[in-house]
Amino acid sequence: MFDLITDEDGNVKGITMRAQWAAFFSTLQQIAFAGSRSGSTSARPAHTSSSALLRWKGMPYFDDQLGKQIFLQHASTNVWVTSDGTVV
């Protein structure tokens, strides 16, 4: 996961994260961010090819205009529902 940078005496001078682990943690961070978003109705996360991995069925979003938590009904659409299934 990490590579140690040492001097000629073996003393650690730095630590770097390997690229594949950095990419993994970056993806986790993006998913955590996507699961805690809030904003106006017009700012809801929309389906695009670049956002496809960051949307999932049941993904939460707090809609400030509605004043309630809503959930993505299907990852491939822009259909959002309340906890009782009402489309908003």
User: What is the general shape?
Assistant: elongated
- Rg, please? 20 Å
Identify the strand order in the major beta sheet. 3-4-5-6
Name the helicity range.
10-25%
Q: Could you describe the largest sheet, including whether it forms a barrel?
A: 4 strands, mixed
User: What is the N-to-C succession of helices and strands?
Assistant: EEHEEEE
Q: List low-confidence stretches.
A: none
Instruction: Estimate the mean pLDDT confidence.
Output: 90
Beta-strand share of residues: 25-35%
| Helix vs. strand class | alpha+beta
Number of strands: 6
Q: What number of domains?
A: 2
Gap from first CA to last CA? 44 Å
By DSSP (H or I, 4+ residues per run), the number of helices equals 1
Describe this entry's structure for a reader.
The chain has 88 residues and is α+β, with helices and mostly antiparallel strands. The protein folds into two domains: 1-34; 37-88, no CATH class. 18% of the residues lie in helices and 27% in strands. The chain has one helix and six strands; from the N terminus they run E-E-H-E-E-E-E. It has a four-stranded mixed sheet, with no helix packed on it. The protein has a two-stranded antiparallel ribbon with strand order 1-2. A hairpin with a 4-residue loop joins strand 4 (60-63) and strand 5 (68-72). 3% of the residues are buried. The model has no long low-confidence stretch (mean pLDDT 90).
